[in-house]
Model the fold of this input.
Amino acid sequence: MSSAHRIIVVDDDAELRGQLQRFLTEHGFAVRIASGGAEMERLMQREPADAIVLDLMMPDRDGLSICRDLRAHGETVPILMLTARGDPMDRILGLEMGADDYLAKPFTPRELVARLNAILRRTSAAGSLQPDSIVRFGPFELNASKMELQRGGEVISLSSREYGLLAALAASAGRPLSRAQLIDRALGRDAEVTDRAIDVQVNRLRKTIGDDPADPRWIKTVWGVGYVLASDDPC
Done:
């Protein structure tokens, strides 16, 4: 069990927490459960998590604010957001706050397992960079072995989805990738992600690295195609 991926399930529904804990444990995950953000934080202080399953709608503190605070404090753990509503705006807001994926209730436990495995695969092998690759663009250095982005020696915190997108772009630096290619290479073929969601995540990545979305220098839009990493642009 020591090699099992460590998952924290955060949901105010005790019955659902128990069901998810039992099912995920049966599928090889090491699962801890929390009824809200404060309990989740205590669990993370004792032992880090490999991924968090986070309910959107909770009475004391909603999942969006928890996700936003985690990212604001540099926490890069992958987050799978659970939403009871099918409103696309919920999904877009979740992605903008830093969630890596979302799953609408009701869902099948097997779908949850598939989504978690996809997130964890992206985290361990995002994009198609070679494990020892180092890609430099402008003042940035992307180190694949460390899964780390630096600017002037300072590490920039990226969520697993942001890293996946950047790794996919870096692996094809100078060559445009369509939104469909980015979904395939960074998120997985089975990811239910719209073109709009990719646009949201690219803009979030631009903001994270300080690339003005209104006039990007590094992650450029190629109209009618998708996006390209302009790695040969001078500093």
